[in-house]
Design brief:
The chain has a 22-stranded antiparallel β-sheet that branches. It starts with a helix and ends with a helix. A hairpin with a 3-residue loop joins strand 19 and strand 20. It is about 25% helix and about 50% strand. The chain is globular, with a radius of gyration of 29 Å. The chain has a domain of about 130 residues. It comes from Vibrio marinisediminis. This is DUF945 family protein. It holds the Pfam family DUF945.
Amino acid sequence: MSSMVQLRKFAAIGGAISLALCWPLAVGQIGQNVIEDSVAKLNSDALTAEIVSYDRGYLSSTVTTRYVVTDPVMAAQLEADGVPAEIVVNSNIQHGLISLSADSVMDNWTEIPLTLHTVTQLNGNTDFEFKLDNWHQSTEGEDGAMMLITPSTLKGHATVLGQVDYELTVPSIEVDFNSGEKLLVENVTGQGSGKKVNSFWIGDQMMKIEQMSVFDPQQTVQFNLKNGEYVYSAEYAETTERVASKHTVSVGEVTVEQESLENLEIDFAFGDLDAASFEQLVTLYQNSPMLTAQDLQEMIPYLDNLFSKGFYLSSDKISMNIGDGEFTSQWKLIVPQGTDNVSQDPMKVMPALQGHFDSFISNALVDQYPAIQQTIDEGVIMEFVKQTDQGYQVKAEIKEGNIVFEGGQKVPLMSLLLPFMM
């Protein structure tokens, strides 16, 4: 009996040893499947991706992949910027117990000191970190320049379901033009969280610039921006298949020669857009930026559907300080659901529009720019503009094809658009 127990014990130990010895091979095979699937998913109308070679070993593997930009417009732009439209990447992969770690470099674009380190779990989820060493590049000629980017990183996490979280850090970018002018960008940071749903990035993104300056050949500052920030957010409602997005730009201070703005904030949003129609319109435009008659004809059913289902455009906040003066504004424009067949009768859009706007300009700002005083005075006389203790305010609603001001005056919306249509 004891002999049988011993045999079972030895068998268990032997099985464990065999599994341990074979596990790196299994990890290598699973990892190869994950990598092959990941590369295949990168293929699109604008990019082809393929594995050139995959040499899988016991504890490590080497892989060569090729990425080619097939979109002719994008490829031509890359070529004009000195960037190859085809990039070959060499990767050294180590097989761990439950993951693969890889270090990758570009084989045919060694001028850029960029490396990628990844750790991929066997389920395909990946931690990644791009590292850019000091990158110095220069071009000759009258329009040439010397560019220096200090060591930068882009790191994050990507799941097999498409969710991506990332952080970006770029300490400084300096461009010295041969003409003597200079551009200096300091402390660029960014982060984001989201995923691509069809053609849309759904989630949040943020980018900050601590300072950006432009110098003339005498090294006098011509433009300076401090504490700039861009925030993007987008949502997709699966039940209604509608998409909404909001963009916000804020700047602590902008100086152009002797003029300066402070506390600038502008946001813009659109919402309730039919995702399928909007995606088709975006795709058609991206495929043919110079729209032909045929392209416009293809757009018609998607435009009709977009207006038929309704949407809105809005800005919750436009504000800035100029010297001691202040300006603020907000507005919203709604195309209600049921605005049908606009391609056959575009004029039906105008009476269907709904919305409002509210703007304020302070007394101090009017005093700084006397040229606008006459226009404001005329608005007060016509009761379009309301004077307050702090300044001047314009409030109105948009309905039934008219702009209806707070005092009850009506102005046909078409009369404001006619000058742009002449």
